[in-house]
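Bench log. Compound arrived from synthesis this morning; before running ITC I wanted a structural hypothesis for how NDP sits in the protein. Inputs:
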Amino acid sequence: MKILLLGKNGQVGWELQRALAPIAEVIALDRYGADGLCGDLADHAGLAATVHKVAPDVIVNAAAYTAVDKAESDEALAMMINATATGVLAREAAALDAWLIHYSTDYVFDGSGKARWQENSPTGPLSVYGRSKLAGEQAIECSGVKAIVLRTSWVYAARGNNFAKTMLRLARERDALSVVADQFGAPTGAELIADVTAQILRKVMHEQDARQLAGTYHLCAAGETSWHGFAQFVLAYASRQGVALKVSAEQIVAISTEAYPVPAPRPCNSRLAFEKLESTFNLKMPPWQHGVQRMLDEI
Ligand code: NDP
């Protein structure tokens, strides 16, 4: 079995390189490609030729335009990467009868209410990024490819920058810290996303009637918090480990979304219901605190 992995150096892509290695031969590409293969989602002809040449059984697309605020003034590129390129991958995979595993986001929803979003809840993205990711989902659906679309939320990883690291740095440098307290979701580790993807692939590759597994699933850690709650958890844990901070968890000021203006509107309700994923693939999503704690120990 052969897997073509795109976006190998992103948060999720990096962890996928590890998690997919025991399952199959993995041809992993970043935007710069390798061995005459193109991994650039802006080069649609190159991408199609690469899929042809590799002839994978599965394409795992972890590449995306993820600069949420920048996308507001860069719509053409966000659409080109998140929607058009996804459509190219979907059509090429369909032509090979290969599977496509693709990641999407809570930003496809409008963030209203307090209920957890189901996979079939009405979408209504608030931002260019959200619209581009939804268009990617729609391109997959139109292509007729066998696909698993995994919508996730609030992704972090030990590698690279993340919200927790930023909070730790600010709490060491500053005398006060204000964090948004009216947006709710579940911080989800790239490790968890990659490990769940591997479990899904094992089932997809070995089940007789695997096509019935195709569809959209929500994949996030269990429980919920706000960005303020997330920051409090991080600082409290760091302080218990003896990290010297100028701002304690209790001193973080809770602010509203309006008090922290950014170019792209964020959904206030990012709660995703993941029971469909758990029951279909026999999984149990761990509480969000577990992964965050591991990541903090690691960094
Ligand atoms: P990252 O931003 O960490 O990684 C995205 C990767 O895509 C980067 O390696 C980036 O490469 C690559 N990329 C960007 N443009 C191109 C291009 N033109 N050609 C090839 N590669 C490109 O994202 P995550 O790992 O966090 O996200 C994985 C998936 O999860 C994405 O589909 C994202 O939309 C989704 N998601 C992410 C969330 C989050 O909070 N991060 C929340 C919900 C969903 P480079 O570094 O060279 O730019």
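What the model suggests: Residues 5 and 28 are 5 Å apart (CA to CA). The longest helix spans residues 75-96.
ITC booked for Thursday regardless.
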